[in-house]
Design brief:
Layout: H1 2-11, H2 18-31, E1 38-40, H3 41-50, H4 57-67, E2 74-76, H5 77-90, H6 93-104, E3 111-112, H7 114-123, H8 130-140, E4 148-149, H9 150-158
Antiparallel strand pairs: 1-2, 3-4
Helix pairs in contact: 2-3, 2-5, 6-9
Length: 161
């Protein structure tokens, strides 16, 4: 009986946040250089990458083929919005969190150290002292080893603290 409960949970379609909807609109408008509310193959590829999708040529061509009903070689905002919305909702949140963890853990130690956090903060233009960074680690470091492991990172990202 527990299994059936889990299945219904997974089927429940998540919705985009207002911020995500705005990001999609902004990406489209940014690359719709002639403002005709359509983007071509190259613009589509760049817009998808700007939204964080590692699209290959085949992916972009398939999207165009599926959406370009008038054979103009372009895709409308409505179609772009529908495709990107599906792609975002199909992302596995757990997989996205683990990708983010790997960005922090650039030395593949399986943990985020003070040095890892300092590097990321610097790359993001955050001017934080070691004290502030240490305090961040201490706040979420449940096992007390002075570093953030994958489990602790997942808890941070899912708000499951």
């Amino acid at each position: 009986n527990e299994l059936s409960v889990d299945k219904t949970k997974k089927k429940k379609r998540r919705e985009l946040t207002e911020e995500q909807k705005q990001e999609i609109k902004d990406a489209f408008e940014l690359f719709d250089t002639d403002k005709d509310r359509e983007i071509n193959y190259h613009e589509l590829k760049v817009a998808m990458r700007a939204l964080g999708f590692d699209v290959k040529k085949a992916d972009v061509l398939k999207i165009l083929k599926d959406c370009d009903r008038e054979s103009t070689g372009k895709i409308t905002f409505e179609d772009f919005n529908a495709v990107v919305t599906d792609w975002i909702l199909d992302r596995d949140p757990q997989e996205e969190i683990l990708k983010a963890f790997k960005l922090f853990d650039d030395d593949d130690s399986g943990k985020i150290s003070l040095r890892n956090l300092r590097r990321v903060a610097r790359e993001l233009g955050e001017n934080m002292s070691d004290e502030e960074l240490r305090a961040m680690i201490e706040e979420f470091d449940k096992d007390g080893d002075g570093e953030i492991n994958q489990e602790e990172f997942i808890a941070i990202m899912t708000g499951d603290i």
